[in-house]
Specification:
With about 270 residues, the protein is of the alpha+beta class. The chain is built from five helices and twelve strands. The chain has a ten-stranded antiparallel β-sheet with strand order 3-12-1-2-10-7-8-5-4-11. Strands 6-9 form a two-stranded antiparallel sheet.
Length: about 270
């Protein structure tokens, strides 16, 4: 016959084993999540990150064990919002069936300025090596397509980027057309690293699926060369990105909406 003390020890051991299993499962999920991030930066991954966080909080052992599962989750990093209120206005809803006619001068220098609620982000564009991409952003800026759009995603582990350019603010919006991949053999992408200060196109994980979404690299990030690099961020822009990154993201899992209210009030592209 099993004594009460033996039964108590058995239950304690089983509970400990369940906790260990949950922690191991959470660790494996985190590894898979980081692999997906590195493979994709896809326009749908923001929703995936939310699903990951929700799934990790649900358990199949009842309410008693939910606290055990929660122990395995990271605590969200919460910081004060360092940004101002957005300017009045709403994102554009217009889309196009095909990319704009090429009008960019590949021999000229172009600069993009993003006036955001958190500060200015200045970018030197590479028209010589990414002409389709630069041409598209010049067109979208003239159309006001990026104005009043929210930067919807911040990653803070493994890769370090701020993702913007979606008028829907969900990671699923775009201009209606797609762009060819360009400049994937850029000499700066050494060792599958996108260096800090790079601006590059997000995509769906498939070739030639870039649209209007882009990401700004605020710290060297390990990524395969599958995302068109089309410019470099200036010193002032890097300061703005650091302020946004320091405020953290909302899930605590290293991939979610930024705590900072990052909205592009106005985007301009011009020859410099």
């Amino acid at each position: 016959m099993v004594s009460n003390e033996q039964r108590r020890r058995q239950l304690a051991r089983e509970k400990f084993e369940r906790q260990q299993q949950r922690r191991e499962a959470a660790r494996r999920k985190a590894q898979r999540r980081n692999a997906v991030i590195a493979a994709g930066l896809a326009v749908v991954l923001a929703a995936g990150a939310t699903a990951y966080a929700t799934g990790a909080l649900s358990g199949d052992d009842g309410k008693k064990d939910k606290a055990d599962a929660a122990d395995a989750l990271p605590t969200p990093k919460k910081g004060p919002d360092p940004c101002a209120k957005p300017a009045p206005g709403s994102p554009a809803s217009k889309t196009w069936k095909a990319e704009p006619e090429m009008s960019v001068d590949k021999s000229a220098s172009y600069a993009m300025n993003l006036t955001t609620t958190c500060g200015a982000i200045d970018v030197k564009l590479d028209a010589a090596n990414a002409p389709h991409t630069v041409n598209s952003f010049e067109f979208l800026a003239k159309e006001g397509f990026l104005d009043h759009t929210k930067c919807h995603r911040l990653t803070t582990g493994g890769i370090y980027v701020l993702q913007c350019g979606d008028p829907k603010g969900t990671g699923q919006g775009g201009p209606g057309y797609t762009l060819p991949d360009e400049n994937l053999k850029d000499s700066r992408l050494k060792g599958n690293v996108y260096p800090a200060g790079t601006i590059a196109m997000a995509n769906t994980g498939q070739p030639h699926t870039g649209g209007s979404q882009f990401f700004l690299v605020y710290q060297d990030s390990q990524l395969p060369p599958q995302y068109t690099p089309f410019g470099t961020i200036g010193a002032d822009g890097m300061k703005t990105l650091k302020k946004i990154a320091d405020a953290g993201e909302q899930t605590g899992a290293g991939d979610g909406a930024p705590n900072a209210t990052v909205v592009i009030d106005k985007a301009t592209v011009a020859k410099s």
